[in-house]
Amino acid sequence: MNNESIMKENVHHLKDEEVNLLLNDLLEQYGYDFTDYSFASVKRRLQRVFINDRFPSFAEFRYRVRWDSSYLTYLMEQITVNVTEMFRDPAFFQVLRREVLPVLATYPFIRIWHAGCSTGEEVYSMAILLQEMNLLHKSVIYATDINESVLEKARKGIFPLAYMQQYSQNYLQSGGQHDFSQYYAANYEYAKFSESLSEKIIFAAHNLVTDRSFNEFQLIICRNVLIYFNKELQDKVLHLFSESLEQLGFMALGAKETLRFTTVAPLFKSVAQKEKIWRKIAT
Amino acid sequence: MIVSIPRTLVIGGSAGSLDVLLQLLPSLDPACKLAIIIVLHRKSDNDSLLSDLLAARSILPVKEAEEKDLLTAGMVYVAPADYHLLIEPDGTITLDYSEKVNYSRPSIDVTFMAAAEVLGDQLACLLLSGANIDGGEGLQQAQEMGAVIAVQDPTEAEVAFMPMHAMSVVKVDRVLKQKDMVDWVMSL
Question: Is residue B54 less than 8 Å (CB to CB) from chain A?
């Protein structure tokens, strides 16, 4: 985790032009467009990969990216941020439990989209909420990410056992009243979450930059993804979400994300300011 | 493009650094032309107590940094709990929820390095009291890129480890006692 700290003076610092060359390769060769991503974040993460994988020169790094498609899968996972936890920000899940899901409960069929779901911790958290409110049987959760290898992990529903204590605490703080350990089977170092949770989840690749709306939802959750996009791309993605929401549907963003200064702001009404939940009131 | 971004001071601190800031901020001249970014280690709760506390004492306006804030001279930005703070080439702030660095998020190294990438010699870095190795490597890289770097005098720091560690990995430009900090900041 702290590989940054082995950086020494003689390590090559990627130049802005080199980062741009790589981003151009990713776009031309593979169709992944990072040009509207936070440059500072992408550069930092590429630098980290460059150091961790001990490339002797930028040219060799670039060659590997261009000609080794299996390396690409790994690189994509490294460039995008895949840090997540179950019931992260318990207050957010508490509001879902108390204010959002009771509204969704009145629908005959519930469709939820987790955009940028990464390794799936929040998706399983949602499935637990739905199950506890006896709504999972009439729900379907679409969980999407740009990155196929994190989706593969998400599908398995297997997370390190060492994290369960923290997740259990988050769960209780979010208003959970059961024994959290009933949701997984512990096996050596891992916790495998129950298949009764995952059978209503559809994991699929979706690229927010290039792909379109694929359904209408009553709730879209996309937390800590937009912070890596520039203003134009944020706007574009928020319009995609707006188009993918039913009237009066809910949208939830990350703790530091906002609709202020975006062109969709007039279409939404805040329902939980601190927890960053809005409701679509216009089209 | 760099000319449009104000000269920037990044202050990093951990255990024992809050008091230093609470003495420094009220003494800064309102004519200060720096953008100031404060990166403090603290518990990863989701409130803005720290920026409120600093704002109550500061002459310069203080705000918790929000994504896409444009660095502005005379403003003090506080990195929010549980996010790293990065600087974009256009002088805006990006918040980043990636892995902890040195067991910390926000990490001081991360902001020192990200700021140095963009600001070069338009950057100054100050590392205060703390019990962590965070900041040392960032100071080193910032100096390579032309920044002025300083640490709080370890003999005065409530927890000497962090500035001492930094001094062991990089030759700092200044070792500052509390009483000299205001003049140093105003001289930047």
Answer: no
